[in-house]
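On clarity, I found the account of how folds are encoded harder to follow than it need be. An entry of this sort, consisting of the sequence and the corresponding backbone structure tokens, reads as follows:
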Amino acid sequence: MSKPEHRRERGSRERRRERAQKITRMVQPIHNIPIYELVQPEGIELIHQKSLDILQEVGIDFYLPEALDTLKASGVDVRGETAHFEADLILDYVSKAPSGFTQLARNPENNVTIGGNRMVFAPVYGPPFVYDIKRGRREATLEDFQNFVKLAYLSPYIHHSGGTIVEPTDAPDATRHLDMLFSHIKFSDKAFMGSVMSRANAQDSVKIAEILYGADEIRQNPALISLINVSSPRRYDDRMLEALTVYAKARQAVIITPFLMGGAMSPVSIAGTLILQNAEALAGIAYTQMVNPGTPVVYGSFMTNVDLKSGAPVFGSPESQMALLTSAQMARRYNLPFRSGGMFASSKVADAQAAYESVMTMLPTVQARVNFVLHAAGWLENGMTAGYEKFVMDCEVLGMYHTLLKGVDLSEDALAMDSLRSVPPGGHHLGTDHTMRNFETAFYRSDLFDYNDVDLWVAEGSQTAEQVASKKVKELLKNYEAPALEPAKEEELQAFITQRKTEL
């Protein structure tokens, strides 16, 4: 390698290292662009009315005696395990849920507003496998979990630490939720999610939040938000209901999300799927308010379709995006925060298919103003795998969406009249005062994607985006520094976790 080439490569490495070491403060975006509404108001009302018909005529099953008792005491017609809801009753309870709320973070600057014109981007949730280009696909470990918590912490475009980013299969089933919760607290100072796998897991999550923030404080503003999935079609299982009940009693936020795949758990038609989803979501939201009126709750949607030839789920399909856009309209119909979207991909690696599928899902997510976006980074293989390279590549796209969400700046400086007047016909704006004032912030520039000419790209090794992303992951983790955690709090948390591990 010649000396100029060596200096150029060394300079490039140093610039990447400097970027890896620089942590930009997280700023939650405000949705300043028009909201795209796919369905006319009369169509939304039609779905609403048909959902009420389902709730009253065929009902929703609740597989927990405690929940059935609460439903009966609240005036619901319960027949066996099936709850039949009168329209006025369910709408009265749904109206008790707040239109938005603030979730606490260990660093108050990282508190997030969920609802209104705010969007929250959170990592992938739940994969049992991880992938990187060096080691391939493998079972996720606690170290992988902690690595993804660190990557989420380091990104200014991820506003939330998430929950079960990956399932650490090397940690015991009974106690791994404690390891995951502590990892969120130790390696990040952003808001995080509670565990929902059992009543005990939810109770442990609440206790840990009380130790970290104080019992009274988390009743004023939730410190936890937790994902409650409906076992579609038309049933809430005992584990989800146990966790939901614990969180509602503690006034911690929950996301009620029907888990629907068109052609399997719901009809093949978008309209039929939306009717089922809405009925299931309203039933869970109403139950939450019956347990504790005013509990923060998010209307959730996780809907895609299956390939009717193979039976495999399909992500990034146009049908799922139409359902997403319409679901957002349904949530606004009830004045509730909305959860959906993400960088979904059926692809097994961070290739062109993954990129196309992810953007296909994420663009309508932004257009619909989804308030809480789970799976915003890292999703691969229909949610079975979390990709290291995919995670950081997704974060770059999220940065672009942050810029899009700002809308067009029409301030006095942005009008650039001084520059427009000073540049003659055939001139250029490269050296004007206006350009010099704004050149560092005028355009979004990715730290990962290549904008150089082909000669420089070849000189730096003709690397693909995935290869560059692999290097960035290494640099980020190598230069990571944990946010400070008050020693007394850490000691108290460790003591509680040790006690619970012994008990379990």
Remarks:
- The domain at 94-406 is CATH 3.20.20.480 (TIM Barrel).
- The chain has 19 helices and 19 strands.
- Residues 270-291 form the longest helix (22 residues).
- The CA atoms of residues 58 and 201 lie 32 Å apart.
